[in-house]
Write a structure and sequence with these properties.
about 240 residues, Carbamate kinase, 9-stranded mixed β-sheet, about 20% strand, globular
Length: about 240
């Protein structure tokens, strides 16, 4: 296996499937099956999932809502998705640990580095919701922070496309895919992979980011086995 311990970053929008809002049960089931496949091969898995299928703090702020309140609503949305993913994983027979950057007793325990690492060593899938617990930080930044805390080998960023392109491949048919990028190249080319705070954290901690298509069943296993199907961003 190329990666022994991963932080899987999923977008909330990916849970919508073909819907325009909410959570599609078939997407949850597919993601849970893919995670189970890598856990069964001894890979330790942490997951951070966004909340954009339910609410985004920035979109709330754009309509006049207080940014801080909007961001907290977005963090709560990530917990709703995290609970849904936890249920789907447990239906697959996996053991899980749900942790949160926000105090959410009795729903789940608070995130701590030691608690997360111990759970992963016991073979549990650790799902970390609630963002960083602070407003003004995205789930990109939260996933990078959590990956550093759990000492992950890499962030695996599951998206709807199979890597990073010169332009949006859904809009530009001439866009070409990068197989590898450095952090500096991604910044210079203004490629929207993660926000600048997340990027700075990843670069300063020498944390690779692998972008791949999570919506194709089996791709997560291919990535952890070392198959080059996406884009690697590293030093």
């Amino acid at each position: 296996m190329k990666y022994k311990r991963i932080l899987l970053k999923l977008s909330g929008e990916s849970l919508m499937g073909s819907q325009s809002y909410g959570i599609a049960p078939e997407m949850l089931a597919q993601y849970a099956a893919d995670i189970k496949a890598v856990v069964e091969r001894g890979v330790q898995v942490g997951v951070v999932i966004g909340g954009g299928n339910i609410f985004r703090g920035l979109s709330g702020a754009a309509t006049g809502m207080d940014r801080v309140q909007g961001d907290y609503m977005g963090m709560l949305a990530t917990l709703i998705n995290s609970l849904a993913l936890q249920a789907a994983l447990e239906r697959q027979g996996l053991r899980t640990e749900l942790l949160s950057g926000l105090a959410m007793e009795p729903v789940c325990k608070a995130m701590s580095r030691r608690r997360a690492q111990e759970a992963m060593q016991e073979g549990r899938v650790v799902i970390i919701g609630g963002g960083t617990g602070n407003p003004y930080f995205t789930t990109d930044t939260a996933s990078t922070l959590r990956a550093i805390e759990i000492e992950a080998d890499a962030i695996l960023k599951g998206t709807r496309v199979d890597g990073v392109y010169t332009a949006d491949p859904e809009k530009d048919p001439t866009a070409t895919k990068y197989s590898t990028l450095t952090y500096n190249e991604a910044l210079e080319k203004k490629l929207k992979i993660m926000d600048l705070t997340a990027f700075a954290l990843a670069e300063s901690n020498d944390l690779p980011i692998y972008v791949f298509d999570m919506n194709r069943p089996g791709n997560l296993l291919r990535v952890v086995e070392g198959e080059e199907i996406g884009t690697l961003v590293s030093k």
